[in-house]
Specification:
Blueprint: H1 3-10, E1 19-21, H2 22-32, E2 37-40, H3 47-55, E3 59-62, H4 66-80, E4 84-88, H5 91-107, E5 111-117, H6 120-124, H7 135-139, E6 145-148, H8 155-167, E7 173-179, H9 180-184, E8 186-188, H10 189-195, H11 210-221, E9 226-230, H12 232-237, H13 240-250, E10 254-256, H14 276-282, E11 285-289, E12 312-317, E13 331-334, H15 337-348, H16 357-378, H17 387-400, E14 405-409, H18 412-420, E15 429-430, H19 441-452, E16 456-461, H20 462-466, H21 472-477, E17 482-488, H22 517-523, E18 527-531, H23 534-547, E19 551-556, H24 576-581
Helix pairs in contact: 2-8, 4-5, 4-19, 11-15, 13-15, 17-18, 17-23
The structure holds adenosine-5'-diphosphate (ADP) and magnesium ion.
Magnesium ion binds next to helix 20.
């Protein structure tokens, strides 16, 4: 019989001072492993767990919906390299949190979803318990690992297992199933303390062999038109100095993926961001640093990559099976970015040849031409604002306040902001990630504020904001320094679509015209402002960042300014039949 059960029988006679329980063991196990924050939505059976955790000194932030608590936890994981913790109730709360857990796994961010669950005996016989669901089975295919703890004396090892699973190798989401009656189990306090485990070296460093490094150096030396691509795996690794040294010593133009922006400032002379199409097409050797050749990079092949002409890839990734996922990797470097970059810099030695200057100059000229072409659009002061004129203002704010955390989601709002807004420091940009998911904004903004203490500027399409807008109450409740700018163009993609049947219902992609999202913020005691001009937007944003008061700015954007699906319209399915039937149909 398990130790906890034996003791349970004697609990009524025992001195509570010499005992502990599942609640406290779980909290102690998290604290022992330096977990300082829990992103929570209270309810049966974890309401008291949240209370006791808060009483014990953990910061417990309660959200209005589990999905956003989950997104917050995942972003905390990305920013801190420690698993972000999300805590939910059973069945529906668990499912809400599971979206975020799957998203964390897809993005390779460490997170642990702790959900309370119903009585195992009843669930397994499907006898109809309160919020009955076999949560462990459902979570398994959607995350990196999933565990259930049944006995109080296993909490220490179970939490340790969850933490190591989340952060080691390729980071990801872990599900931890906590049946309600585990929390009430009682055991001897001294035995309980002994059962806790502090994880030793949770994410071991890994260096490739000298042979692998030499192979990579040979490929890089053969390049006439080399390119470096930095991904969010590089940002996650927090080895910013050695990454910068690698890029600068190599002299190779680099392209940051959206959340790797700022690893080197976007204004860096080697940045090829504004010449993206050119460098993807014309490069001959590409060094991938913590970035995958997935849809965001056209899978490393096709016209965008200059096919039929072929190129060679060198790839740094902690996950061995990422190699050859889409195209052949000529020189795989399996290891953490910091260790591999250090080995590469050492192997480059003192006599490293800079890339041919005709290539680096061609890239620089292209960057300059594109930046100049853009500049006038950013200064347009006309009303209503379009994406460029509104973002021109925010670009200057980010340059003046480079510590500000920048959160960004939407379609056009995302695509324009990603290319217009320079990021000047590492891990300052949080966005829709690998899935391109909408609704991450408020959870991300909350985690960014809580984990870094810096002010947050969240630039949100009105549609994206709708997925998570209720969390502005959470922002006001915890008085977080978050300034939300809703780019309000009255709809999804554009705000001027009409019902093609001629009927009374609005079109499927439009919202209430001229909605006042700023009034929502005022309802919770935050600052709500409407901005119709770039000047008004500028004043309101600067005031919000300065005051650190929760603020929402309703930025009126021309309903005609956006395009269908932003930059990824080509992903929409096409049908010649539908095009013929509806003359209004958008050609992608
Ligand atoms: P992006 O979307 O910015 O291109 P991805 O999310 O596609 O970036 O790729 C990130 C990659 O980084 C993943 O393949 C992941 O395995 C890898 N990775 C994550 N952490 C590390 C690390 N510490 N060192 C090396 N690679 C890492
Ligand atoms: Mg919109």
């Amino acid at each position: 019989m398990a130790l906890a059960e034996t003791l349970d029988d004697h609990v009524t006679n025992a001195d509570p001072q010499t005992l502990t329980d599942g609640f406290h063991l779980l909290i102690d196990a998290l604290k022992l492993n330096d977990i300082k924050t829990i992103y929570n939505v209270p309810g049966i059976p974890i309401t008291d767990l949240g209370r006791y955790a808060q009483a014990s000194g953990i910061r417990v932030l309660s959200f209005r919906h589990e999905q956003h608590a989950g997104y917050a936890a995942s972003v905390a994981g990305f920013l801190t390299k420690k698993p972000g913790i999300c805590m939910t109730v059973s069945a529906p709360g668990f499912l809400n949190g599971l979206t975020a857990l799957a998203n964390a796994t897809t993005n390779c961010w460490p997170m642990i979803l702790i959900s309370g669950s119903s009585e195992r005996e009843v669930v397994d016989l499907q006898q109809g318990d309160y919020e009955e669901m076999d949560q462990l089975a459902i979570a398994k295919p959607l995350c990196k690992a999933a565990f259930r703890i049944l006995h109080a004396e296993d909490i220490g090892i179970g939490v340790a297992r969850a933490i190591r699973s989340a952060v080691s190798g390729r980071p990801g989401g872990v599900y931890l199933d906590i049946p309600g009656n585990l929390l009430g189990q009682v055991m001897d306090a001294v035995e309980g303390e002994k059962s806790l485990v502090k994880v030793i070296d949770p994410a071991p460093k890994q260096t490739p062999s000298a042979e692998a490094i030499d192979r990579a150096i040979d490929v890089m030396k053969s390049a006439r038109r080399p390119l470096i691509i930095l991904g969010k795996g590089a940002a996650y690794d927090q080895s910013d100095d050695i990454i910068r040294e690698l890029v600068e010593k190599s002299g190779i133009p680099y392209l940051p993926m959206s959340m790797a922006k700022g690893l080197l400032p976007d204004t860096h002379p080697q940045s090829a961001s504004a010449a993206r199409s050119m460098v993807l097409k014309d490069s001959d050797v590409v060094l991938m640093v913590g970035a995958r050749l997935n849809w965001l990079l056209s899978h490393g092949k096709g016209k965008q990559w200059g096919e039929p002409y072929s190129k060679k890839f060198v790839q740094i990734d902690i996950e061995a099976t990422e190699m050859d996922s889409n195209v052949e990797i000529a020189a795989p470097l399996v290891g953490d970015v910091g260790s591999v970059a250090t080995a590469l810099v050492a192997a480059m030695g003192d006599s490293w040849q800079q890339p041919p200057s005709d290539w680096t100059e061609a890239v620089r000229n292209k960057v300059q031409a594109n930046v100049e072409r853009m500049a006038s659009r950013l200064q347009n002061n006309s009303t209503p604002m379009d994406y460029s004129s509104a973002l021109g203002v925010l670009k200057k704010v980010m340059a003046d306040k480079p510590d500000t955390m920048f959160v960004n989601e939407g379609a056009n709002t995302l695509d324009f902001a990603r290319s217009i807004i320079d990021i000047h420091k590492p891990r300052k940009r949080i966005d829709v990630g690998t899935w391109g998911v909408m609704g991450i904004g408020m959870g991300s903004a909350i985690a960014a504020a809580v984990e870094t203490g810096h002010p947050v500027l969240a630039v949100e399409g009105d549609s994206a904001f709708g997925f998570c807008g209720m969390e502005i109450e959470t922002i006001c409740r915890y008085n977080l320094p978050v300034c939300i700018v809703v780019f309000n163009n009255n709809g999804i993609y554009r705000g001027d679509d009409t019902n093609w049947s001629g009927g009374e219902d609005p079109a499927t992609t439009v919202f209430v015209s001229d909605a006042r999202y700023d009034h929502m913020m005022a309802a919770f005691g935050g600052v709500g402002v409407q901005a119709e001009t770039p000047d008004e937007l500028n004043t309101a944003v600067r005031e919000a960042i300065e005051s650190r008061k929760p603020t929402l700015i309703n930025a009126k954007i021309d309903p005609k300014a956006g395009k269908e699906s932003g930059n990824i319209g080509s992903l929409n399915p096409q049908s010649a039949v539908a095009q013929a039937r509806y003359p209004q149909a958008v050609k992608h």
